[in-house]
Amino acid sequence: MTVRLRLAMHGPRHNRIFHLVAISQTERRNARPIETLGKFDPRLLPGEELKTVEWSVDRIKYWLGVGAQPSKVVEKLLAMGGIHYVRKEPQQ
After folding, report:
1. What keyword terms does UniProt attach to this protein (predicted)?
2. C-alpha span between 19 and 27 (Å, rounded)
3. Domain that holds residue 56
4. Would residue 10 count as lying in a domain?
């Protein structure tokens, strides 16, 4: 079973929030995840200048350590957050 780290979309239209989850690759986007690792709210509230991501770094590193593959969007978020991930290229 391949585990992916990806975003699950929640909330009403025009007011979405995204959960960073560890989930089986074959499951649909909003299926029940193995574990919820964080939350990303892309909206800026009045007075805020930066978007924030709340996540558990230890659990993300654990999942990456056991072979979970992040999606491209999650990979970009991890790079911006300073969590280094090296993509493993398939052997030919």
Report:
1. Ribonucleoprotein, Ribosomal protein
2. 15
3. 3-80
4. yes
Could you give the residue ranges of the DSSP H alpha helices within 1-92? 57-65, 72-80
CA distance 86 to 27: 24
How far apart are the C-alpha atoms of 61 and 75, rounded to whole Å? Answer: 12
Does residue 45 form part of some domain?
yes
Cα distance between residue 66 and residue 88, in whole Å: 13
- Structural domains counted in the chain: 1
Residue 56 is given by DSSP the state -
At position 61, the amino acid (one-letter code) is K
The residue type found at 42 is P
pLDDT in tens, 58-85: 999 999 999 999 999 999 989 988 887 6
